[in-house]
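Intended use. Records such as the Cobalt transporter entry shown here are meant for training and evaluating sequence-to-structure methods. They are not intended to support clinical decisions.
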Amino acid sequence: MADHCCAPPPLNLGPRQDVSVFRRVLWAVLGINAAMFMVEIGAGLAAGSASLQADALDFLGDAANYAISLFVVGMALHYRASAALAKGVTMGVFGLWVIGVTTWHVLHGTLPQAITMGSVGFAALAANALSFYLLWRHRTGDANMRSAWICTRNDVLGNLAVLLAALGVFGTGTGWPDTIVAAIMAVLALQGSATVVRHALAELKQPAAATA
């Protein structure tokens, strides 16, 4: 139904929206995420932390998603919605992958290094907070814009959770806090995936005249 509360209204990326600003923001957050992936994947493997490894791959996935957004920005709504749909599916795959990694760490009884988790977690939080700030003004745009903002919103929440996990590992001497946080990150990814896919499908169903 056209008036369904979950269906977004027709949105166009026309002259009134500053495409160049959004493109510059995407380049900035792309660089931030690519750099943090390199930092976190090394630290996550060295520390034996499932949550850090999950967060690192999230950075990698976001960098790829921002690259897709850069490619389609300024195109017709149909193409932007298609890109957002692909990103939503990717977020869902990431969530399932995190569940697999978390299960592996549970079975092997991994004890991560809390100090490394905490220090790298603070750096990741700062990077994502900057990305969140840069993307804030675009959070109510089309599905392509919303998907970029949702990715970053989930990353900030995930970074806060990693810091809590580091405190938990340090205080308990067990790996369970790290495991729990990794599972929460998987749920966030799956939830974000469902939101992005729903909005993208709604835009794809709009009449051709509204998707120019």
